[in-house]
Structure formats: structure tokens, C-alpha cells
Specification:
The protein is mostly helical. It has one domain: Multidrug-efflux Transporter Regulator, Chain: A, Domain 2 (Orthogonal Bundle), CATH 1.10.1660. It contains six helices and two strands, in the order H-H-E-E-H-H-H-H. Strands 1-2 form a two-stranded antiparallel sheet. The relative contact order is 0.08. The mean pLDDT is 93. This is MerR family transcriptional regulator.
Length: 123
């Protein structure tokens, strides 16, 4: 199938499909005219890539285990768990940072409110 048909079937833009090709996530056959031709299996590959992108993984991370999960169950791919562990640690660090920012904002807002209460406008 051509890239336009794959895009229509998966809901993924042609630009994204070309990017997946550049990253080595998809491997279409190149015709003499330069057109990419994808196997029927490419649709499943794209859906799998989308699943992992929606988990917040990078294309580089996905590339490290994609072949294994496409040919075997995820549970049997030893490369997956360390990537998940790393991503979870990143998310936990981001949550801590966001909680700190939230606390700082709340304190600043309370400080503003406290200052307003102590300074009533003179009539």
C-alpha cells in the first residue's frame, strides 16, 4: 500500500509516517520511482508505534524494542521493562517539580492576598 493509504487507514499524517521511516521504525520498500510501498503489516506497526508514543516514549526508545514486541508478546521482551522504568522515573521527577511549582505559586498568591488584607485602600 502507498503512504497515503497507510495514513488514511491509521489516522497518522504522511509527515509522521515519513519520520517513522527516517527513525527506522517503519521499513517500506522503495520503488524505482522513489515511492514508498508498505506491507499490510505496516498498519499494525503504526498502531503499535502510536501506542508507545501515547505512553510518552521517544521514537529512539520505541526503536530499542519495537521489533521484539511486533514479533513476540511485550512480556517476553526484556528491553521493554527498563524503558518503562526509566520513563516512570522521569514522570515522577516531573510530578515533584510541578508540585514544587504549584506550592510556590500558592504561597505567592497567599502572600498577595495577605498583603491586600493588611493594606486597606484609603478613602
Amino acid at each position: 500500500m502507498k503512504i497515503g493509504e497507510l495514513a488514511a487507514r491509521t489516522g497518522v499524517s504522511i509527515r509522521s509516517l515519513r519520520y517513522y521511516d527516517e527513525q527506522g521504525l517503519l521499513t517500506p520498500v522503495r520503488r524505482e520511482n522513489g515511492y514508498r510501498e508498505y506491507s499490510p503489516f505496516a498498519e499494525e506497526q503504526v498502531r503499535t508505534i502510536q501506542l508507545y508514543l501515547n505512553l510518552g516514549l521517544s521514537t529512539e526508545q520505541i526503536a530499542s524494542f519495537l521489533h521484539c514486541v511486533l514479533t513476540s508478546k511485550e512480556a517476553f521482551c526484556k528491553e521493554v521493562f527498563p524503558v518503562y522504568r526509566q520513563k516512570l522515573a522521569e514522570i515522577e521527577a516531573q510530578i515533584l517539580q510541578l508540585q514544587s511549582i504549584k506550592t510556590n505559586l500558592e504561597e505567592r498568591m497567599q502572600s498577595i492576598l495577605d498583603e491586600r488584607e493588611t493594606r486597606e485602600p484609603e478613602d
